[in-house]
Design brief:
single chain; 81% helix; mainly alpha
């Protein structure tokens, strides 16, 4: 796999993770807005959202060029 192909794959994965993160945010807001919400489900969604954020940061760091001072 060439560098360009690898970068494109990372960018595609990043976009998918960002979309899933946004979807997770919407789901959390919808569940929290219910008069009786399932706290266990809400906690699981928040945990998954944090995992997604960690993956997003990792890929963003991999895409940044190495800068040497």
């Amino acid at each position: 796999m060439s560098d360009d192909e690898e970068e494109q794959a990372l960018r595609a994965r990043l976009a998918a993770l960002q979309q899933e993160h946004a979807d997770m945010d919407s789901a959390i807001l919808a569940i929290a807005a219910q008069p009786v919400c399932d706290q266990l489900q809400l906690t699981r969604l928040k945990k998954r959202k944090l995992q997604l954020k960690d993956q997003i940061v990792c890929i963003e760091n991999a895409l940044l060029p190495d800068i040497t001072a």
